[in-house]
Write a structure and sequence with these properties.
Length: about 180
């Protein structure tokens, strides 16, 4: 009787965790980041995906590997920006896309405000673009009346992976964000 062959995803994760031996994180954290990257790329059509292990600019190790990428549509629109878009009759599809940070986690991990603060302390407001050199972040300044520029401070998507490999995403902000008005 033959043993079962590993799935394509398992093979992909195993290959990616062997690529670099100088990572500052445990292999299961990197495997989780790879699994989330794979989910974003093949299930949600994200582009320009990257795994980050060091803070941009300072070069210090991050508390956990993070993924960054470009989603197929805007993930979050700040309430003030939403009002301006309505007033100026601007469609969401006309506003430039924004690169997003993604924090891969497992459902069984315990998180505290302190742990989230450590993650936010290690990242910039906007992830660096692929190939971007130096320590400066690039904020989108396109758009009319500030539409298309980053608002609301740092944010990331919390990617929570369950035991059955289901991934659920939540938007998390560093600090308090003005609520939407109905």
């Amino acid at each position: 009787m033959e043993s079962a062959q590993p799935s394509a995803l398992t093979s992909y994760i195993e290959a990616s965790t062997k690529l670099t031996s100088d990572r500052p994180h445990e292999s299961h954290h990197h495997a989780l980041a790879t699994q989330v990257l794979h989910n974003l790329q093949y299930q949600h059509d994200w582009h320009e995906l990257r795994i980050h292990t060091r803070s941009f600019g300072a070069g210090r190790p991050l508390t956990k590997p993070l993924v960054s990428g470009l989603p197929p549509h805007r993930i979050y629109i700040h309430p003030d920006e939403q009002v301006e878009m309505l007033k100026q009759k601007i469609q969401e599809s006309d506003v430039p896309l924004e690169r997003e940070w993604v924090l891969p986690t497992h459902l069984r991990e315990k998180w505290s405000l302190r742990k989230f603060a450590e993650v936010f302390d290690g990242v910039g407001e906007v992830p660096p673009t692929p190939g971007q050199e130096g320590g400066e972040e690039q904020l989108s300044t396109r758009g009319v009346g500030g539409i298309g520029s980053r608002r609301g401070g740092k944010r990331l998507l919390l990617a929570t992976v369950g035991d059955d490999s289901t991934v659920v995403y939540y938007v998390i902000h560093d600090g308090i964000v003005k609520p939407r008005q109905n």
